[in-house]
């Protein structure tokens, strides 16, 4: 009877080991994976080149920082672009400069350095679309181009569609004819000035043209 009890106890013990061991092993593997250098994502700067209009601001960000890493920001020309301790850039006057971002920390042997080139241009004073009227078949696409003055401006026109169900427009001015009808594409700038393009959408002459190019 004692031998039977020992066998039962041994069987239970073996089963417990089989059940618990894989879990414990997975935890060790997981813990090891977290600590390995290969699985730690490298720090990255959100932008390396940037255009700003005077009086605009932008926040530089560094992703994938470790707990002990500290970020230091420095502008080569504070009269063009100033930068705060938190990475906020402020465009002060027209020109070009570089913002250097340095990561310091006990866990790295050498400081990691990023650079972001910043161009500051004047605001736009006028905008004109190169096309005033467009006729498209359903399913067709076209890109509208806006001319802004002065040509040194860092500003871009903001595109919108009066009726997106007829014609959709992207931020870069690409339009897509979605259904038959007439609508207007507006491109505007910060001072309130704008230009309009009238878009007429007609039935596709061939079903093949309904497919996106």
Automatic annotation (TrEMBL):
Pfam families the UniProt entry points to: Big_2 (PF02368)
Q: Which residues form the BIG2 domain?
A: 39-113, 123-199
Task: Check the record and name the SUPFAM superfamilies matching this protein.
Answer: Invasin/intimin cell-adhesion fragments
List the InterPro entries: Big_2 (IPR003343), Invasin/intimin_cell_adhesion (IPR008964)
- SMART domains in the record, alphabetically? BID_2
Identification of the protein by name: Bacterial group 2 Ig-like protein
Organism field = Catonella morbi ATCC 51271
């Amino acid at each position: 009877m004692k031998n039977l009890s020992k066998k039962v106890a041994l069987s239970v013990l073996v089963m417990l080991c089989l059940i618990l061991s894989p879990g414990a092993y997975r935890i060790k593997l997981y813990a090891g994976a977290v600590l390995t250098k290969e699985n730690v994502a490298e720090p990255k700067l959100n932008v390396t080149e940037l255009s700003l209009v005077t009086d605009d601001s932008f926040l530089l960000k560094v992703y994938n920082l470790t707990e002990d890493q500290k970020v230091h920001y420095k502008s080569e020309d504070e009269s063009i672009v100033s930068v705060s301790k938190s990475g906020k850039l402020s465009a002060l006057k027209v020109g070009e400069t570089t913002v250097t971002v340095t990561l310091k920390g006990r866990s790295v042997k050498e400081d990691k350095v990023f650079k972001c080139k910043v161009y500051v241009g004047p605001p736009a004073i006028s905008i004109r679309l190169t096309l005033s009227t467009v006729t498209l078949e359903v399913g067709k696409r076209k890109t509208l181009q806006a001319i802004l003055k002065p040509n040194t401006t860092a500003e871009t026109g903001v595109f919108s569609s009066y009726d997106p169900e007829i014609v959709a427009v992207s931020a870069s001015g690409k339009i897509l004819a979605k259904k038959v009808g007439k609508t207007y594409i507006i491109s505007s700038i910060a001072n309130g000035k704008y230009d309009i393009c009238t878009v007429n959408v007609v039935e596709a002459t061939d079903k093949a043209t309904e497919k996106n190019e």
